Amino acid sequence: MNIQIGSNEAGQRLDKFLRKLLKDVPLSAIFKALRKGDIRVNGKKQKEKYVLEEGDQLVIKYIQSNAKKNKTKNFQMVDSSKIRIVYEDENMVLVEKWPGVLVHSDKKDGPPSLNDYVLSYLYKKGDYTPESEITFTPAPCNRLDRNTSGIVFFGKNFESLKLLNEMIRERTVKKYYCALVKGRIKDGKYEAYITKDEEYNKSTVYNENRPNTKKIAMDVKTIESNGAYSLIEIELITGRSHQLRAHLAFLGNPIIGDFKYGDKELNSFYENKYGLNYQFLYAYKVVFKEVPSKFGYLKNKTVAESLPPIFKKIKRDVFKFVI
User: DSSP label at 113?
Assistant: First the structure.
C-alpha cells in the first residue's frame, strides 16, 4: 500500500494515523510491522511517535486490510436544508443544534445526528468527499445535551479541527449560554464538584471535593429578572456532562423546562402553555480571543445567534411586567 500524506494527514503521529487507516488490523500487528520496517516513511523505518509531514511517502507491506477498500460515506445522507449555518469559512462551520437531536448518534442505525446533517451539507457542497480522504472526517469540537440547543463547532480539515479543540480546551475561545431560571441568582463565578451516574445518566453536584468528582466552574451574569424568574448569561468555564443544568439546580435556580433537574410544577406549566418540553438553555455566543496564526482573521471576533422563536415568546411573556 502506497500513500502520499496530504494536508489532512500531516501533523498526526504515525501510530495514530495507522490505527485510523487500518481499523481492522490488530494494534499488535501494526507495531510489529513498524519494528520490522514493513512500514516505512520516505523509504526509512520510523518510530511510532514520528509526526507525519505533508508530502511524506508512506509504504505499508505485508498487511492485509479492507478498511481502505471499503471507504464510502460514513454517515447517513439526509436533507441538510434543515440546518442553520451560524458562521462558515474554509476552516470551520458553526451550526445551530436543535432540541431532540444528538451531536453524535448513540447507536447504529439510529435517527440522524447533527453530525449526519453537517456531513451531508458539506458533501453536497463538495467540501467533503469521503472517497478521496484517507482517514479524515470533519467532526464536532463541542457537545450539547440532546435537549440543549445552540452553536456547535465543526472543523472542516484536520489542522483546523485540532486547533479548534485546543482553543476550546485552553479557553481562548469563550462559549456563552442564555438560560431562563427560577428565582434570582447573584452575578459572579460559581465553582463546585460534579460526579455522574452513567447508569441513570444523571449528575450530582457538591460544594466540596469528593471521590470521583471533577471540579466545575461557570460565570453568571443576569440579563433580566422579575424576582420569580431570571434570564441569565453563563460563560462556560469547564465542560462537564450536564454541568450547567445540575449546577443551577443545586444552587436553587433550576432551568425552566429541564425535566431531569428542574421544578416539575413549573415545567408542567410551561409545557402546557407553550409546548416547551426541553430546557430553556441556548448556546448563543462564542468569542474568539487569542487565536493561532491560521485563524488570525478571527481574533476578537464574536459570533452570536438570536434565541429561537419559542424562547423569544416565553421571554417576552415572562418579563412583560418587571418588578
Answer: P
